[in-house]
Amino acid sequence: MEVVVCVMNGDTHEVEIPDGATYARLLDEVGENPEAAVVVVDGRPVPEDATVDVDEVEVMRTVSGGQK
User: Fold this and answer.
1) Is 44 helix (H, G, I), strand (E, B) or coil?
2) How many CB atoms lie within 10 A of CB 39?
3) Less crowded by CB within 10 Å, the N or C end of the chain?
4) What is the CATH code for 2-61?
5) Within a 10 A sphere around the Cβ of 59, how many other Cβ atoms?
6) Looking at the predicted structure, is the pLDDT value of residue 15 above 90?
7) Sheet with 2-7, side-by-side order of all strands
């Protein structure tokens, strides 16, 4: 299955993944850490353990940390 992955404020990737692959696998394929990024489909975040069932997604990098 071919999926277009648009990383917000970053690159766009065309990735070939096997049927039944998860969003976590998709993040790995584009070099994003699942602990620091969220996959968004139709404007909504999807669980990383869900099966990829669309041909285009966005990846939003999360921001954490700050001063204490």
Assistant:
1) strand
2) 24
3) C
4) 3.10.20.30
5) 20
6) yes
7) 12-16, 2-7, 56-61, 37-41, 44-45
